[in-house]
Amino acid sequence: MAYTLYTYPGNPRANCTLIAAELSGIKIETPEIELGKTNKTEEFLALNPLGRVPTLKLPSGAGVFESEAIARYVARLRPEVGLMGATFAEATEVDSWVTLANADLVPAMLPLVWVHLFNLKYDGSAATKAKAAVDRVLQVLDAALLSRTYLAGERVTLADTVMVSVLNLFMTHTLDAKARKAVPNVMRYYNTLTAQPAFAKVLGEIKLCETPLAPAKKEKAAKKEAAAPAAAAAPAAPAAEPKKPKAKGPYDDLPKSSMDLDEWKREYSNNDTREGALPWLWKNLDTEGYSLWHCNYKYNGELEKTFMSANLVTGWFQRCEHLRKYIFGNVLIFGSSGPPGSVEISGVWLFRGQSIPPEWDQEGNDAFYYEWNKLDITKAQDKALVEDYFAWDGKFEGGPTKPFNQGKTFK
Ligand SMILES: N[C@@H](CCC(=O)N[C@@H](CS)C(=O)NCC(=O)O)C(=O)O
Fold first, then answer.
1. What is the pLDDT of residue 392?
2. Do residues 361 and 275 share a domain?
3. Same structural domain, 192 and 151
4. How far is the C-alpha of 196 from the C-alpha of 22, rounded, in Å?
């Protein structure tokens, strides 16, 4: 009999265990449950007397309750994987980070995220306190990650599966681009780990937060407070402020282009690249409105596995969703799995405007870890490079040093 984890999809308290299981090669079933029903049955209460999720059912039929105990149980099943830390000192570090995440970040989920997702009663002062707690932990984490790749030791431990699972909720719901920019080391850590296959498989497609969740009935609440200032529990009243003009986006001031990027994407998707799409591009490319760039991963010397490199690219693409209207690219993997330096990542992008997207030169952004070189299609070699990258074949002169392995298109 297999292990069964009762939870609802996306529960950070369960994701940490599911990632640990992926890393350890342990199969865990996650049957669909109806929260409020399944967890109140007699059978369920025999596993967890409080009737809560997550709850783990062991092959013996016994139950394990409390998310932290469940995560530790699974991590201990395969000590050789090292999820509990390789040494006594590392095990203590794992304990510190797991407890910090659970004691300081998990309680903030309810007032900051779940209250909105599940339409619960909003408590302004609880939200303010929770936000301060999250900000403080992020600062501590950012300082710690300045000199580390992982929280404890030199490889992934339970500290990372717990921390990333919890961070993921805030990254996708409350921390907008400005908040993320304030913690570049946390971002590098989060981006690196979520690109790893075990994390990517459990967390699925990640869409970083653009606008933080806000109280559902903010305006009404603000008006009530104006009438009765004594009940000032909710945040200050933004509704009373004059409406600010909408901030300009980085592409808003560009003169209209004669080339329609969507049309190019359709051409590329529906036609043979060399026979149909590229001739269309060379005929329609507006070199004033658009620019072409080659990118080369700065840490190619560290890459060992093709599938992990491909995952790095997938993670990057997932975080580019908001730029889809303005960019198109092909990022390719070259070489084959082997010792460090066996694999290379490089690509060619087409961008609206004459520079790489503004946020891409900031530390923590995936693009920051690439060298960028603007291409000039009046030069035969640059033009051929664009063609090879877009067609996924050719000589790639001036590009990679290893043979093509696989590619990914952002369109
Ligand atoms: N301390 C527990 C908290 C678990 C918990 O509160 N789970 C919630 C869902 S996230 C639940 O089961 N609520 C339903 C209920 O209490 O009836 C743990 O970490 O496992």
1. 96
2. yes
3. yes
4. 11
Q: Is there a domain that residue 353 lies in?
A: yes
Question: Atom of ligand 1 at shortest distance to CA of 13?
Answer: 19
User: What stretch of H or E contains 29?
Assistant: strand 28-29
Q: 257: burial class by Cβ within 10 Å (0-12, 13-18, 19+)?
A: middle
What gap in Å lies between CA 243 and CA 283, rounded to an integer?
Answer: 44
Based on the domain organization, do 33 and 157 belong to the same domain?
A: no
Of 375, 289, 374, 280, whose CA–CA distance to 384 is shortest? Answer: 375
Question: Domain for residue 226, yes or no?
Answer: no
One domain, residues 44 and 152: no
Q: Would you say residue 270 has pLDDT above 70?
A: yes
The separation between CA 95 and the C-alpha centre of its own chain, rounded to angstroms, equals 24
Is the pLDDT reported for residue 239 higher than 50? no
51 Cβ below 6 A of ligand 1 = yes
Q: Which residue, judged by its Cα, is nearest atom 15 of ligand 1?
A: 52
Residues 110, 75 share a domain: no
Q: What is the mean pLDDT of residues 226-241?
A: 34
- Residue 153 falls in which region: left (phi positive, over 0), alpha (psi -120 to 50) or beta: left
- Residue-averaged pLDDT of the chain: 90
State if residue 52 touches ligand 1 by the CB under 6 angstroms criterion. yes
- Domain span at residue 329 reads 261-410
Gap from CA of 121 to ligand 1 centroid (Å): 18
Q: Decide: 387 and 274 in contact? Cβ < 8 Å.
A: yes
Is 334 part of any domain? yes
Nearest residue (CA) to ligand 1, atom 19: 67
